[in-house]
Amino acid sequence: MTSPVLTNVMPFFTPASKSRGSYLRVHVCRNPLSDMRSDIPSCRTLNHQFKNTREVAAAITGLKLSKALTYLADVKEHKQAIPFRRFKGGVGRTAQAKPFGVTQARWPAKSAEFVLGLLKNAESNAEVKGLNVDELYISHIVVNQAPKQRRRTYRAHGRINPYMSSPCHIEVILSEADSTVKREDDGKKVARLNVRQVARNARKARLTRA
Asked: Where is the signal peptide (predicted)?
């Protein structure tokens, strides 16, 4: 089995052979809006269940980094659960899924532990790049299926069945949140009218002109 390798894929092209001068393309699902304000840790051929890791990634998308770290640590201790929305066949129900608006949830400790380590690695990379760690949030995270790893299991009457594993690729983009500036109050407030109110005002205007 190939062990997962944690890489930082900021260079979009990496030299494959200096003698031939060829290049090996490093595929990323999304390029950050700003390289100076983002960090992209990734992992290839991760020997973790694709379906479980995908649900973990979906649960933390858009969260602030500090909140995501706390959430995944709670999942490992079964204090909070990961809602299963897509790959939910045969998944049991639990009361911890109620805050997410679903009934099915689990505690995929192995996937949560790895994603937690990946986020901590990204946090360290962000500190090296001089980013404000307190303002980082998970702007993009994607989990893709990797080539299945093949084993075999021996059955009765001399048969052999495949015994496959489902590894995955994972990629995260951490970005600094934009600072929001409150609009200055100039005393001119524009009233927002719905369609019915606009029609009523138009009808009153026609009656007044008549």
From this structure: none
Place of tokens 């790959």: 87
Q: Return the closest-CA partner of residue 96 out of 107, 85, 87, 88.
A: 107
Q: Which fold has domain 5-179?
A: Ribosomal Protein L22; Chain A (3.90.470)
In 3D space, the residue among 171, 143, 169, 173 whose CA is nearest the CA of residue 4 turns out to be 169
Q: What are phi and psi of 188, to 5 degrees?
A: -105, 100
Using DSSP's 3-state secondary structure scheme, residue 83 falls into strand
Q: Which residue has the tokens 């532990």?
A: 113
Over residues 163-207, the pLDDT tens digits come to: 999 999 998 888 887 766 677 766 677 778 899 999 999 999 988
